[in-house]
């Protein structure tokens, strides 16, 4: 197909995330991805400021990850996980156990499903059916987890009448506030008898608004969960594997959850795979877990995930994330004074410009592309999560595009 044929058929027939058909903003045709850059069909080269929705932390077309897929493909692309096992899944499980300190691993095929599994674990373990969380969160688009996304400002209001009603505390502030600690305490104590678990995204609320909050709230939730015999679920799908400057978001608070969800960067952006891990106590309390995806433990995905985590262990990711953080702080410093901008914030390899009004997606993307950068804004957010492989000059170009886009609003 020619690029024009691809674009035309796509526009009329292919649904893209969070869009209509046809989409208001036509999709760009990509023909190659290499390092931290995407090449479009018209020859333009764009720096990827999104890491393909936060997953391609090593960049694209990495020889180590490519080879892992090729080697595994020659042996076995897939085999059912019911009654069978294989080395790629077992090696990956061992690595995840060592990284997290959580000894039981359930493989899923997407982040949303990993959270669904976590919810099932909590319900089966406790015999209770309600969850507590905080406003401003996002945990996925499937039905069980939509119910613990923000019920007012989230993207799932169309389905609210079909969702169970869970317990919500307010949005966690970035600063440490005694009144919010008291709100968490009061909320948990009032509902303790009906709660199966508390579920949060550690330190960073991702697609719900790209908000950062004080790690002391995680410490407090861990304490409350222990006091009231409630499980704590950490959704680390966006925050895991170094994005915030620590290996996991929970590490900022020095806590370990009862259940942890992982995904996105786990496979380096190569294949869809996720995992839900839990403690020995939770696993024994559950017994038979009633879930089993067809592609559970997929050998190709497990092999490339292992290669990605090996690569992460070898590379100086902490220093890389710190360098990205410093470049984001410097590059976004001027954005705070712009009329359209409400807030600017940076944590680890995450940079956010929050605007006062919803952004014009086409306009922001157009300005960014004019600066040689690919960004995908949403709501009132122009943000970036660059690959760890991004050089300081790359980050400077990304922040320049973000500031220019905010100036154009």
UniProtKB/TrEMBL annotation:
Its EC number is 2.6.1.62. Its cofactor is pyridoxal 5'-phosphate. The modification N6-(pyridoxal phosphate)lysine is found at residue 264. It comes from the Bacteria. One of its GO terms (molecular function) is adenosylmethionine-8-amino-7-oxononanoate transaminase activity. GO terms for cellular component: cytoplasm. GO terms for biological process: biotin biosynthetic process. It is found in: Cytoplasm. Substrate binds at residues 53, 138, 264, 292, 376. CDD domains: OAT_like (cd00610). Pathway: Cofactor biosynthesis; biotin biosynthesis; 7,8-diaminononanoate from 8-amino-7-oxononanoate (SAM route): step 1/1. The record marks 18 as: Participates in the substrate recognition with KAPA and in a stacking interaction with the adenine ring of SAM. It catalyses: (8S)-8-amino-7-oxononanoate + S-adenosyl-L-methionine = S-adenosyl-4-methylsulfanyl-2-oxobutanoate + (7R,8S)-7,8-diammoniononanoate. SUPFAM superfamilies: PLP-dependent transferases. Pyridoxal 5'-phosphate binds at residues 111-112, 235, 293-294. Keywords: Aminotransferase, Biotin biosynthesis, Cytoplasm, Pyridoxal phosphate, S-adenosyl-L-methionine, Transferase. Belongs to the class-III pyridoxal-phosphate-dependent aminotransferase family. BioA subfamily. Homodimer. Catalyzes the transfer of the alpha-amino group from S-adenosyl-L-methionine (SAM) to 7-keto-8-aminopelargonic acid (KAPA) to form 7,8-diaminopelargonic acid (DAPA). It is the only aminotransferase known to utilize SAM as an amino donor. This is Adenosylmethionine-8-amino-7-oxononanoate aminotransferase.
């Amino acid at each position: 197909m020619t690029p024009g044929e691809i674009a035309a058929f796509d526009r009329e027939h292919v649904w893209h995330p969070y869009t209509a058909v046809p989409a208001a903003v036509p999709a760009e045709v990509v023909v190659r991805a290499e390092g931290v850059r995407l090449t479009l069909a018209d020859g333009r080269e764009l720096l990827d400021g999104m890491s393909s929705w936060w997953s391609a932390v090593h960049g694209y077309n990495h020889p180590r990850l490519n080879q892992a897929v090729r080697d595994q493909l020659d042996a076995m692309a897939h085999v059912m996980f019911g009654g069978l096992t294989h080395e790629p899944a077992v090696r990956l499980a061992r690595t995840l156990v060592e990284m997290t300190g959580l000894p039981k691993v359930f493989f899923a095929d997407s982040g949303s499903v990993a959270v669904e599994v976590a919810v099932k674990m909590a319900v089966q373990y406790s015999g209770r059916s309600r969850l507590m969380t905080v406003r401003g969160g996002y945990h996925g688009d499937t039905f069980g987890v939509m119910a613990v996304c923000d019920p007012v400002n989230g993207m799932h209001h169309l389905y609210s009448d079909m969702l169970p009603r869970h317990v919500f505390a307010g949005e966690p502030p970035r600063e440490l506030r005694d009144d919010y600690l008291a709100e968490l305490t009061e909320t948990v104590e009032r509902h303790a008898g009906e709660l199966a678990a508390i579920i949060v995204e550690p330190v960073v609320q991702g697609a719900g608004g790209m908000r950062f909050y004080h790690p002391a709230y995680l410490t407090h939730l861990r304490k409350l969960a222990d006091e009231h015999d409630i499980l704590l679920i950490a959704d680390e799908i966006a925050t895991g594997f170094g994005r915030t400057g620590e290996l996991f978001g929970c590490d900022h608070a020095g806590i370990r959850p009862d259940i942890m969800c992982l995904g996105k960067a786990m496979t380096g952006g190569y294949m869809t795979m996720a995992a839900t891990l839990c403690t020995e106590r939770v696993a024994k309390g559950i017994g038979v877990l009633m879930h089993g995806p067809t592609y559970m433990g997929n050998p190709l995905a497990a092999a490339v995930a292992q290669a990605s985590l090996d690569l992460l262990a070898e590379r100086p990711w902490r220093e890389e994330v710190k360098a990205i953080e410093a470049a984001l702080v410097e590059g976004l410093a001027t954005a705070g004074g712009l009329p359209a901008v409400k807030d600017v914030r940076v944590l680890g390899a995450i940079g956010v410009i929050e605007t006062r009004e919803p952004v014009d997606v086409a306009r922001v993307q157009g300005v960014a592309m004019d600066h040689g950068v690919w960004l995908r804004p949403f709501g009132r957010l122009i943000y970036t999560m660059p690959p760890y492989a991004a050089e300081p000059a790359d980050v400077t170009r990304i922040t320049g595009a973000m500031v220019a886009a905010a100036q154009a609003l």
